[in-house]
Give the backbone structure.
Amino acid sequence: MRSNGAGMVTPDMAGEEVRIAGWVHRRRDLGGLVFLDVRDRSGLLQASAGPGWSSPEAMEAVRGLGPEDVIGIRGVVAPRPEAARNPDMATGDVEVQITELEVFNKARTPAIPVYLPPEEELPSEKLRLRHRVLDLRRHDLQARLILRHRLVLEVRNFFHEQGFVEIETPMLTKPTPEGARDFLVPSRVHPGEFFALPQSPQIYKQLLMIAGFDRYVQIARCFRDEDLRADRQPEFTQIDVEASFVQPEDIYGWCEGLMARLAEVAGIEADPPFLRLTYQDAMERFGCDRPDLRYGLEIGDYSDVLGALDSNILRGAIAKGGRIRGLHLAGGARLSRKQIDAIERAAKAEGAPGLFWAKIQEDRATGPMGRFFRDDTSARLALSPGDLILAAAGPDRVTSPALDAARRASIQALELPRTTAHAWLWVTGFPVFEEGADGTMGANHHPFVQPHPDDIHRLDSDPLSVRGLAYDLVYNGTELGSGSVRVHDADLQARLLGMLGLSEDEIATKFGFLLEALRAGAPPHGGIALGMDRLAAWLSGGTSLRDVIAFPKTTAARALYEGAPVQVGAAELAALGISVGGSE
RNA sequence: GGGGCUGUAGCUCAGUUUGGUUAGAGUGCCGGUCUGUCACACCGGAGGCCGCGGGUUCGAGUCCCGUCAGCCCCGCCA
């Protein structure tokens, strides 16, 4: 039906007869002469219809065309007259002079425009999702999805080259007792019983290691029934990786090699090995476990100097065992009171009672904390005139998140320059456990993380201090992937599950199959899962996962194009042995 | 579950602060003129449940209450 892609026609094809098929992008009707921009995946091409070269039928048909009509044209490639060339168009030096035209399908006037005039805003995202087929015709989205395809291809090639095997794992699986809420799938054969869609193939990939596959990879769809964000969809795709007889270094090496290859595909810079920070250092220097290292600003400990000032609050914080940490903002004194208040609000939103701050002037310090400054305070803190110091006092668990928020708000307020466009980082040594708000102990990552050999003796005496062989890959302040070396000893695994509050019965019924596998001779193993959607979004320069997913869900977890989810009929429910209650 | 922003013509938006005649613009759509356009140009026309429901008022796009939807965030997401 066609000889060339519309975007593939070049000046050296002049004189050739071509057949082009695609959509009518724009039509410019000059009366005796009609121009069409024909669009397909490969690009745009101008076609012209005129009485000198087009059949009367083609002239007639071309006048009836509207945007998004699907047509096939036959014509001759011609260089455009010098004055009629369009340097803004990839194929702007040529056109196809239409001899024959066939209309494959008329299109209704599109509900949202595929062609957008310059400086016209995109239609609202609601409409873009509702009319996704039209939205997906736009070059921008096509380019993102095609880049995603190339990234996925590169992932498969890379791991194949490294000796990995891609193995599919079940989508109908067993509900998990902790972690995210499961999507449940009723079984008709077993009324009242349910499968769950996998939150990740975590246990399956461990089983594959025990089965002896050594190196496993899967581009795996995962499901979590939790509330959405711009970087979170209820169904998403992971690059799921697991390998036997490995240490964290092996995983780092593979991931760094992969990132370098993917960055190359996307045309951006990645220069492994990536920087590494321990969890502790990350919290100390940046107040969070996934700092954005595109900016150099770091948190400092000012307990000695600020704790000695004549402020009851500052002294009190030290006396209670806390610290005074803060941010030294060079040139920050130019921030207005309003801007500083905004930074403080960000810190308060993270739970800090407030921020102390001082502006350093030529002869004195001003601001709520500045009045406590002594003659040598600025010098001892290495503050110069024009600087601003922000500080938070108290236990680290309060000041760290507050200063993380203050850091991000300060970067924004001061418009600090980036030191790099792409900041990759490993954060290592996450704690195995975390304390929940209700005081119960939960798994920080998941319950299969191998405790650090240096810390394992503290499992009973001080479990919260036990580090795990767990690591995150961070890109520009966002978690891109998370992994660990796993527990391969059944007794240790059972003990860890018990520490999380599971009874022996629960452990047996919920994780018995895993423990049984571990007892069958499990190799030491570990791995990582990388967010494929996030990777595609960031590497294509976007921020929302919706831009790299053909048919994404809204923030209320609805599919607007097809209209899901829906209620189902009583008969269907009855067949599944399910009754639906009221909204209570 | 909570907070914020948004919802007016097919689409993008103005109008809402301070209630007041017939709700506007650009674009798209329909009809017409036009042989080198490319945001074609020009002439004419049609097009509105102001998200939905209730209330206040002589009068509501505008004020109040509720509700729905989209987006952003908190909780949540190992």
Remarks:
- The CA atoms of residues 294 and 384 of chain A lie 24 Å apart.
- Chain A has a mean pLDDT of 94.
- The longest helix of chain A spans residues 139-161.
- Chain A is about 30% helix and 25% strand.
